[in-house]
Specification:
The complex is a heterodimer of chains A (215) and B (10).
Chain A lengths: L2 H24 L7 H14 L10 H23 L17 H13 L6 H16 L1 H10 L4 H27 L6 H26 L9
Helix pairs in contact in A: 1-3, 1-7, 2-3, 2-5, 4-5, 5-8, 7-8
Chain B lengths: L10
The chains are: A mainly alpha (215), B little secondary structure (10).
Chain lengths: 215, 10
């Protein structure tokens, strides 16, 4: 493991902890897209099936378990928690997330490394993760006034993706035969989706004002 | 080897 990969994983972990902190302590999920959270739960559930079939390291297994647990916990809070669910912006969070799932699945059936059950699901999870942030970005754009925790959450998610790109570049130059076209391309698409948000996030941070997205 | 560490990232 290199420093970029570790920084990426830690940003990812931190972003989820921020979101859990917000939901658990403030008992509010205002500004958080349930659609995106449901997509992430599906991403982790389809990607980490290998938790039962292979072992890479204790670190790997613990992180996978955390991502699975946290994503389903967040969905549970937003759907069923007595107080939290009332703060959910249901009317604003209208992105048709089901329309993302089928194309990603068809693409995974067509473009994959190996045609096995686990491999196709793994590939599906990569494609779906690439676009899973879209409902969240649309919701931010709609509400425009972004509260700090939600803004930081999306920022650290984007940081996680950026560090992964540095990690791939590093591995490409330091390891033999390290090519992962599918991972790279879906990762690049995913990171590109954050570019616009990053711009406004950094701008508001430099002017030390509240993050506001243009309509 | 290829199989084993092809999915070593999260």
């Amino acid at each position: 493991m290199n420093i970029f990969r570790l920084a990426g994983d830690m940003s990812h972990l931190f972003s989820i902890l921020l979101l859990l902190l917000k939901i658990h302590t403030i008992k509010s999920c205002a500004g958080v897209s349930l659609k995106t959270q449901e997509l992430y739960a599906l991403v982790f559930a389809t990607r980490y099936l290998d938790i039962f079939t292979g072992y890479i390291s204790l670190y790997n297994t613990l992180m996978k378990m955390f991502f699975l647990w946290s994503s389903f916990t967040i969905v549970w809070y937003m759907r069923y928690h007595n107080v939290v669910r009332r703060s959910y912006d249901k009317d604003q969070d209208t992105f048709r997330h089901y329309f993302l799932i089928l194309p990603c699945f068809i693409l995974a059936l067509l473009v994959h490394e190996k045609f096995t059950f686990l491999e196709v699901l793994w590939t599906f999870s990569l494609y779906l993760e690439a676009v899973a942030i879209l409902p969240q970005l649309v919701l931010l754009q709609r509400t425009r006034n972004v509260d700090n925790l939600t803004g930081h959450y999306v920022f650290f998610l984007g940081a996680y993706r950026s560090f992964y790109i540095l990690n791939w570049i590093y591995r490409y130059f330091t390891e033999q035969n390290y090519y992962k076209w599918i991972t790279w391309i879906s990762g690049l698409v995913q990171t590109a989706l954050y570019a616009d948000f990053f711009y406004y996030y950094v701008k508001s941070w430099r002017n030390s004002e509240r993050l506001q997205l243009p309509a | 080897e290829d199989d084993e560490d092809s999915h070593d990232e999260l």
